[in-house]
Structures are given as C-alpha cells and as structure tokens.
Amino acid sequence: MADYTAFDVAHLANVELLTPKFEESLWFFKDLLAMREVTRVGDSAYLRCWDEYQQYTIKLTASDAAGVGRTSFRAASPEALERRVAAIDGAGLGEGWVEGEVGTGRTFLFRDPDGHEMGIYYDTERYVASDEDRPALKNQASAYPGRGVNARRLDHINFLAKDVEANGEFIAAALGGRESERIKLDNGKLAAWWFHFSLKSYDVVYSDDWTKHGNRLHHIAFAPDTREDILKGADIFLENGIHIESGPHKHAINQTFFLYVWEPGGNRIEFANAGARLLLDPDQPVVEWSEEERKKGQAWGMKTIETFHTHGTPIV
Amino acid sequence: MADYTAFDVAHLANVELLTPKFEESLWFFKDLLAMREVTRVGDSAYLRCWDEYQQYTIKLTASDAAGVGRTSFRAASPEALERRVAAIDGAGLGEGWVEGEVGTGRTFLFRDPDGHEMGIYYDTERYVASDEDRPALKNQASAYPGRGVNARRLDHINFLAKDVEANGEFIAAALGGRESERIKLDNGKLAAWWFHFSLKSYDVVYSDDWTKHGNRLHHIAFAPDTREDILKGADIFLENGIHIESGPHKHAINQTFFLYVWEPGGNRIEFANAGARLLLDPDQPVVEWSEEERKKGQAWGMKTIETFHTHGTPIV
Amino acid sequence: MADYTAFDVAHLANVELLTPKFEESLWFFKDLLAMREVTRVGDSAYLRCWDEYQQYTIKLTASDAAGVGRTSFRAASPEALERRVAAIDGAGLGEGWVEGEVGTGRTFLFRDPDGHEMGIYYDTERYVASDEDRPALKNQASAYPGRGVNARRLDHINFLAKDVEANGEFIAAALGGRESERIKLDNGKLAAWWFHFSLKSYDVVYSDDWTKHGNRLHHIAFAPDTREDILKGADIFLENGIHIESGPHKHAINQTFFLYVWEPGGNRIEFANAGARLLLDPDQPVVEWSEEERKKGQAWGMKTIETFHTHGTPIV
Amino acid sequence: MADYTAFDVAHLANVELLTPKFEESLWFFKDLLAMREVTRVGDSAYLRCWDEYQQYTIKLTASDAAGVGRTSFRAASPEALERRVAAIDGAGLGEGWVEGEVGTGRTFLFRDPDGHEMGIYYDTERYVASDEDRPALKNQASAYPGRGVNARRLDHINFLAKDVEANGEFIAAALGGRESERIKLDNGKLAAWWFHFSLKSYDVVYSDDWTKHGNRLHHIAFAPDTREDILKGADIFLENGIHIESGPHKHAINQTFFLYVWEPGGNRIEFANAGARLLLDPDQPVVEWSEEERKKGQAWGMKTIETFHTHGTPIV
C-alpha cells in the first residue's frame, strides 16, 4: 500500500444525493439540518453546512429513485492532484476532466470498481459570507444557525459495494486512503472496510452490498459538535415525523456516537460525533473485528439494527 | 514557508513538566486527571492518558522551580525525521542525537530560539494494556477510567517567548508547522502565534513573554471528549482545592471550549474541547486578530483574565 | 413562619415584562428563545414556552421604560387560594379581584412592600396544541422547537427591593414561601434572599436595590433541559448581537448553571439549569452566606460581575 | 382519590436491596456509582449518594436471592405521618411501629397488597460531612466524587405486582400518591402505573408481574445531573463488565433519558435524567397510553427490550 507520510486527498469534499421527493428532501436539509441553499441549477439544489469553507457539500438532485450521484474529493495540492490522477488512470478507471460545479475547479472524473461516480479536484472558491450570514467570530465560515442538529460539516460516506475488497484496495491505491478498521467474516471476506485520509478515523467506508446491484449508498454522515446536538436531533426528528432508524448509541467500530435517520427521499443520513478521538499515530495498525466480535452489537450492547443489512439506496 | 501538502511532524508527543511539589503534582495528574503512572526513573514519573498509543506523554520531574523541560515531537516517517533534522541543523539549533526515554526511539535534540529544549523522533513503542487496564473495545489504548476530567490525550503546548516572531518562524521552517491564527498588536508585533501540523487547529503556540526571561511555559493542554467533561472537571477542581484560573468559557481564537487551572507545582494546565472543528482546507489562510478585536475578550464576552499576562513558569 | 407540610402556591405562573423596544424584544423571545406568541391584546404580546401547560407565561408590553409589570402565582387549590388571599389581606396589601387575562381565571391583585404588582389565581385554561404545534409525545404541551436555547419553562423571578427583609417576610407570610438560601452582610442586613414553593430550590428572590427606587426587576429566568442548551444559547446570542452579561458559569448559591443576557429592551434574562438538585427535605435549614464567603465569587471562581449591582430595570 | 393540595409523603427515602453476591454488589455501588458506605450492620451495608441529606438511601443486604426488602418513605411533617398511618391502618395493611435504622426515626411498617415491605417515618438525622468528604460549597451534602455516573440521589422505585390496579390504588389512598401516567391494555387492565408525591413526575411505579409471584422488584433508579453522566456511565459499565440491558435512550412515558443495567446481584438499576421537566400543574390530568401507542417503542423508536417483561428480582 501507499506510503502514509502524507495524504494526497485532503478530505471528502461533496456528495450528490438523488431523491424522488425533492421538496421534502430539501425541507429536511434546510429546515431540520439548518443547511443553507447556495444556489439552484436545473433540478439540483446546492447546500452547505454553517462551518464549511467551500461553496457547497451536498448537491441535492430530483431523480426517479434515491441514491448517490457524484462524490468528490479535494486534493491537498496541485501536485497531489496530478499524482492521484496518474494512479487512477493507472487503474484504468479514469474518465477524464470536466469543469467543476459551483465554485469547484476543474475535476477529474472516475468510477470506483463498483461503479460509483467520483471526482477529484484541487482548485476551489472559498465561501464568503454575506451580511445575512456573517459570523460573529471571523474564524468561522458563516453564522451559527442554532437550530436543528447544528451539523458543522459533512463527515464521511459509506458506500455499498458488491466487492468490498476490490473497492477498498482501489481507495488505497488510487486515492492514497489508509485503512483504519475492518470486519472480516469467518469465510475470510471483508464485510466492511473503513478508510481515512488524515487524523479523522474514517472518511470513506465500503460495506457489503447484499443485493450485488452495484452503485448503491449505505449512508452519508454529518458531524455536529457534541453528543447533545445528536440527542436534540433525535427529538427534532421525532417531532417532524422523520424515520429514526437507530440510535442515539455508540459504535464499537471507531467509537463514534451516532444517530441514523432516513431523509424523506429514502437516503440514510447519519449524525456522528467522535469526541477527541483522532488517529495521531502515522503507523496505526488496522483494527480487525471478527464475525464473533461483531455479534456483541454496538459499544453499549444494542444489537445492530437489521435494516442496516436490508436498506440501501437505490432500493432494489 | 513550507509546502503544506504534507506534514513531517505527526503530532506533539510528550512534554517534561518541572515541579517544586512533586508529590502534590503527581496526585493532581494521577488522581484528578486519571493519568496512569507507567514508570518512575530517578526524580521523574512517566504518565499517560487512557487513549494515548505511546508509553507516556508527561514526564513529571521534581525540580527547584516549576517550568517545562524537553518537549518532543513524533515525525511522520523515517524520511520525515531526516528532513526535519536537516532543517533544524540548517538553522544552527541542532544539539545531536540521544537515546529516547521509556519506549521512545533515538531522538534528535534541539532548542527553539527562546531556549526551550526540544526533541524529535520517529521510532516508538506502542503501549500494550495489561490485564488491569485492558479496554473493552480493542480500538482503544487502555481502559476508560471514568473519573476526573477524562482527558483522552495531550493536545497542545503554549510557550512563552521573548520573540514570538522568531520562534514561530523556526517552528514553520524547522518543523514544518503551519500557522492557523495570530494576534498582531498595533505596533506590528505578534502577541501570540498558533501553529498546527495536521487537521487539528493548533499544536504549538508562542505567546509573548513579558518578562523577556526565556525558556518559560504558558501552559499545556489536554483534550477531553466533551464540554461536559470540562464542566465536571471544574467541580472536581473546586472540591480538591485546585486554583481555577479561568473558565469554563469559549476562546474566540480557534473557538476551543476551555478551562485553565494551576497544578499544585504552579504550571498552568488547560482542558480544551474543539468540537467537530478541524482545519480541513489545505490552503487555509491565517486568521489575524487585531489589538482592537482582542479587547472584546473571549467568545462569549468574558474579559481575558489578567493573570494570563502575569503568570508563567518558572515564576520570575 | 408558615408550616411547610404543604405549599399553597403551586408555582410562579406568569410575568409581565415592559419594554421600550417592543419589536426587538418580541424578536428576542420568539426567534431566539423559540417562544410562541399565543395572542396579541393592545400593546401586549402573550408568549409561552414549548412545555408550559397554561396559555402564557410572559406578557410583553410596549412601554416607555423597561421593567416588570404584574407577576402572578397559581394557587394549588381553591382552598389554598382562599388562605393566601386572607393572608395577603391580613398584611394590608390586597387590592381586590379582577378578571384574569388570556386563560387565567379571576385573580386577586396585591403588591409586595416594595410596590411590585402581583396576582394570585387558581382557575386556569390548559393550552391545547393545534395541528401546527401538536407534540409527537402526548405528555408534552406542544411540539419541541429544536432551536434557540430550547427553554422548557419559566423558572423564577428575582426582584430588586429597597428592603430585602421586609419583602422576603411578606413572601413567607402572605404566600407561604419557604426560604432556601440568603446572603447576610457584615452589618446584619440581608443582601439577597431566596424563596421556594416546592421541590425547586427557588422561585422568587429579593435582591438589594442599591438605588432605593422601588418596583424594579433584577431578572427573570427560564429553564432549559441541559447545560449544553445554555452553551448553545451563548453562541446564538453572540451571533445575534445580544449582550451577554455573565456566564456560562455555575452559581455558588443554589448551584445553578447560568447565563445572563440583556434582552433588547434592557431587561436581564437568565437561563438556569439545576441538574438533578431538588430540595427534598421538608425541614431543609436555610443556607446562609456571609459577606466574606461571597467574595469568593461564583462556584468556579469567576468574580460576580459588577453590573449585577449596577443594572436593573427600569434603569434609574 | 386524595386531595392534592399537599403531599403527606415528602419523598422516597430508602430501599433495601437483597443480593446473593454481596461483595460484587458492594463494589458496584461504591466503585462504579461512587456511593459512600456509611456503616455496616450485620450482613448489611448502608450507602448514600453524594448529595443526599440523610444518613443512607440504600441498605445492601447479603441474601440467598436478589430482590427488594423494605422501602421507606419520609413523611412531610409529624401531622402528615399521623394521617398516613391512619390511612394505612384503615386499609388493614399496617404492621406497627419499629425503631428506625441508621439515623431514621421510629418507623411505621406496612405492606402493599402485593406483599412488598414498606415503612414510613418523619424523624431523621441529617448527614454531617466529615473532614474527608466536606464539600467546597456549603449547600451540598458531601464532596462531589467526580467519578462513575455521579448519581446525585435516589430517584424512584418500580415494583412488579400481581395486580397493578390494587397496588396503585393503595399508594393513592394510603400514601396520598398522585398518578401521573399509566398504560391501559386493550383488555382494560393497567400494565403499569406511575405515581408521584410532588413536582417530580414519578416516585413509585407498579408494573405487571407476569409471574404472579408477588413481592418482586422491577428496578430502582438514581438521578445523575446530566444526560452526559449517563453516557459516561455506559462507558464505565462497558469497561467493568456490567450487563447493560437497555439504553441510553429516552422513555416516551414521562420522557426520562435512561440507562438500565443489572448490578452483579441481578437487580435492575436505572439511571434517569428528567431535564427541566416538572409536574407544576396541581391538576395535571393523568396521561394514559394504549397498547397500540406503546407498540411504537421508546421515544426515539427503539423497541422496548424484551427482558423488561422477563427479568425481575427475585428471579422465579
């Protein structure tokens, strides 16, 4: 695998979510998550959290079915971008350069082996707050909304994949991702694999797609500042008729405090808080969980909810 | 300055604290912070927090006066270590290699321009929990103590320096640190300068030493998982007669939720929580605060306590 | 004093706040505290928190100056109301019966010795949520707003009084309040006196009015569910340009976690969280603090802010 | 039912827990809950939480089987005690006066219809902190331990009963308890009934004993100050091998944030936080939940765990 003295990918940058219930999904992100709609282009709304430095992180697109469109990563430098494009092309999965969207510079498109559409870019336009959302503290991207789950930023994406190993190896080789944790079944196959690009313990995850459909989403996650934000979020989702699938509880894997809901379009959305946990060790060995160990359920003993293994988008 | 596509320093690794009240200071770290004493060598106790992967982070040494001894950094790779040693030597501040202490590999010693003793190393021995402190979750360094302020790890160090600019420039050039925020006085001088090595918004800070004494400490900080840990910590320090200097409150600069106390030996100790705030942008512009802006005090309006500018260790 | 096997006053029921900036004050209560405007009558807006069972708790009235209008208490039963009216009349401070406002039954008006207008009633109309604010859980008065400081209910009132003793004795004798804590100055006078009606540690407080003006307000307080609500509230007030006077911090007296702000009209508003602390003991001795003890400041050492002793409404 | 202008019972005062694993149970209460052992008499240890004003709240007794011994209530006054004794005797369930234990005055013994042993008293000896556990704040019973779940006080008891209606009616008639919530099955029988004595929303609960054994315990509960204490508690129980049965989550009924564990002896222990929720309304109508409504599970959608209806102590 790659040499991890440096990460060429700075962070997960944006995700396109497809929804068959555009207006309801938009209400979810704007009213319940307090995301701001930056612009509207065609059937898509571009949205950002209050402390994100770029123009947008979620592109919400009206579609026949729920699911995930393009997922983009920001490279750490122009040189890092060149290195990654070369590695992707070397894997034969590159699809060429396009103009980026809404403040995003030129973007190299590619697909992971499972068929998920991806992009990588370096150039970006920083968000400049207007009078309306200028923050009181100048080291913050925009004003604190003080409502909803107060998600500060997009955190990670968990893809379903027909072949977890093949896709994880691609993330490692092509994007320079480093594995942090994984579940190995008794049959020797990986059921899920967690990758990260810097101190965060995960940014991209692959989970087994039991349908073998391809190009499906397990969930995307946002990061609120505190566990209390997540508890409050549960009350808000309860009041607003949003399906709470699981949590609040604590994952054994990577120890995040979590809440999973389904946005009105059907996509699973997580809210995750890692506390002060960071992967500071540049040589951190991967943590592997056996089938037996996973039977213990989540950290505090709650059994992993069955729909984690039956619901993904698009629904097939 | 350096190219920030990668950081050669992985993280702040350990700090030697000097104390004229060794037993009382040891009680503070072991009983109130729930740190574990790993070993004792001569007049020094080696201590670690519950989720630190190395053998120790604090070396507590009996001394005539409070203050700071050697501060060490872990390099991200053997090659990164070589690069940094070359840079330090280039600045004429290298002092040569020594054997590392208590699980730390060979270490290159040097001093910053202000005279603070420093070391950098790559090789390290991971901590392996004994039966007594084996964690229930295998992705954790040792058992969760569930008492005190529950500090998960050492977070940062803030040095007093006669010349903030000279020392900050050294951190940037010799260690590859990147500036995140700074205070510029009306006379054009920097009053304080924050540097970081990865996603964390600061790891090393220089603050103006009004005494111009040299080699002094403003504070070291630990990272608990939640703001509630810090509120509980305040109650614990109150009950145990520890001087609470300031907080709990929120810094305007870098927005950390904080509490400052003086350990029995006189060194200032901070507990800091950053929430979900990370410096994801590889091109993050520095945030500069003017003298006028700093007059507003901390984030929620509390005036910065006067002793921040009168108390440092050693006391002179 | 009274026999405390029972409390004739069930709780502080509602407060009329006077404001010279009606629209701005209304914005504060509706947008930042998420209170609901129930009705508007003349120059007054009637407002309630999300889990209050009556029609309103705050009557906000446009006025030349900030300050407090009528403060009402709900009696525990019709018999309790009769007993209290007799006691008030016995003190010569009764002013007779009036029709209650907005769901409040007939009300007996009176004044405390300092001249604050007060009322007591028993009959009340419970709030019935409309489709718009119907809660998901039937044991809640209305839907959880999930924004602002999420104050669940009005908590207490702190009056300024020319003569703390005389007014406290009136609350004890006429309303059956029980003292919980008090500050006694070296000259033998009480500087502040805390009274409660049931398990809550205080509902009505008298503080010395240094101006000797009479009929002034120190503050009213709301109760959010958690300390985190109060920390979030501080961020919200910061973003919205509301003057944060003091906190978040913890009171030594009665140990509430607090935040004080000035609403746009100038009235001081507190947000207070008591945790699990209740006065369960029916024979709880009063806790008396000396002048010397109060010099220690608040629980965690922050000095009591000077404006606590210079700002009250109306401003004189 | 009773006239609720006053409550003759001030609060649930103490509970005797029986354990077949005395040493392990004692470790649970002392080391994990930070309760203090006040004295030892015969096979019983008397324990108290850090902010309880009496000598003890838990009497832990070595026994052949887990379960509950005597549950005592403190009357609000000598006159209230007389009234309750008369009411209990009137129900034919009185068993006469005994000397109280460890600071508790003379106590009238009785049994509820299900056979649970109970006592009521008024005279009590307040706890006076020694040098060792003297609190920094004088309005607190003893020093804040700052470890474990930081439970401030005993909160409530939930009994299993062969006949929920008969026992609930007894609590109402004999002790003057007021119902707050209840579950009514489709067959018209109550499955559980919640009673309270003052502003707290419940102090005594009866749940259906599916075994029809009699004299069994569902659980006792402690009150920590914050939800974060409960989340931390979950980590502590995980590390210490304590069976976490359910939670952390939020009850629909009475809305408490909860965690249930089994102490080593087998008794179910809850940690419950009510936030700022109090039953202020002296005429609060009972909240009744149907079988259909209960199928929705807990507040945030987690299904009620099956062992709530299969595990009680003694195990039969």
Describe the secondary structure blueprint for this structure.
4 copies of one chain form a homotetramer.
Chain A: E1 9-19, H1 22-32, E2 36-41, E3 44-48, E4 58-62, E5 67-75, H2 78-90, E6 94-98, E7 107-111, E8 117-121, E9 151-161, H3 164-175, E10 178-184, E11 190-196, E12 204-208, E13 216-224, H4 227-239, E14 243-250, E15 257-262, E16 268-273, E17 287-290, H5 291-294
Parallel strand pairs in A: 1-4, 5-8, 9-12, 10-17, 13-16
Antiparallel strand pairs in A: 1-5, 2-3, 3-4, 6-7, 7-8, 9-13, 10-11, 11-12, 14-15, 15-16
Helix pairs in contact in A: 2-3
What does this structure look like?
- 4 copies of one chain form a homotetramer.
- Chain A has about 325 residues and is α/β, with parallel strands linked by helices.
- Chain A has one domain (about 10-130, about 150-310): 2,3-Dihydroxybiphenyl 1,2-Dioxygenase, domain 1 (Roll), CATH 3.10.180.
- Chain A contains 5 helices and 17 strands.
- Chain A has helices spanning about 20-30, 80-90, 165-175, 225-240, 290-295, and strands at about 10-20, 35-40, 45-50, 60, 65-75, 95-100, 105-110, 115-120, 150-160, 180-185, 190-195, 205-210, 215-225, 245-250, 255-260, 270-275, 285-290.
- In chain A, the strands form 2 sheets. Chain A has a 9-stranded mixed beta sheet. In chain A, strands 2-3-4-1-5-8-7-6 form an 8-stranded mixed beta sheet, covered by helices on one side.
- The radius of gyration of chain A is 18 Å and the shape is globular.
- Chains A and B meet through strand 9 of A and strand 9 of B.
